[in-house]
Amino acid sequence: MQLRNKQDFWSGVMFIALGLGFSWQATSYQMGTAARMGPGYFPFWLGLVLALLGAIVLLGSLSKKATETKVDGFDWRIVFLVIGSVVLYAVILRPLGVYLSVFILVVLSSLASHEFSWKVAVANGIFLVVFSYLAFIKGLGLIFPLWPTFLGAN
């Protein structure tokens, strides 16, 4: 067996490590049963599924004949845009509310794409604002500030 695809190999290793790490950490929580799940049940099984996916990707990167693959250079701009938009979201959620914070998060993180389009970013932002409202506020009943605090309406 030879390594056919370095990217798939290292992605598989990363998925396996993360999946097993999350599953192992989830065992410190109460598991419960399938009918009455505890806080550790879902992360445990999700971690195992991630590790299984990693194993499939890793095994797919091995073959009898090797081909040369090249891993592109690391693009720090993309990392800073994605992580920075998530950090900014955490900072502005309380003062700006869910609606504006989610919209800003989506548009800023969309800038990291090589195929960025304002039209698509705005449409995704609007869709995710509506989805967040329906899923988390209406569906789950979570309490978040919806509008900026300086407007006085939530």
Give an overview in words.
This protein has a two-stranded antiparallel ribbon with strand order 1-2. The chain has four helices and two strands; from the N terminus they run βααβαα. The chain is an all-alpha fold. Helices cover 64% and strands 3% of the residues. The protein has helices spanning 6-26, 41-60, 76-110, 118-139, and strands spanning 2-3, 62-63. It starts with a strand and ends in a 15-residue tail after the last helix. The protein has two domains: 6-62; 76-137, no CATH class. The model has no long low-confidence stretch (mean pLDDT 87). Keywords: Membrane, Transmembrane, Transmembrane helix. The chain crosses the membrane at residues 9-27, 42-62, 74-92, 98-114, 126-147.
Number of strands: 2
Shape field: flat
Given as residue ranges, the uncertain stretches (5+ residues, pLDDT < 50) are none
In terms of DSSP E residues, the strand content is under 5%
End-to-end CA span = 60 Å
Task: Please outline what is shown here.
The protein has four helices and two strands; from the N terminus they run βααβαα. It has 154 residues and is mainly α. It is flat, with a radius of gyration of 20 Å.
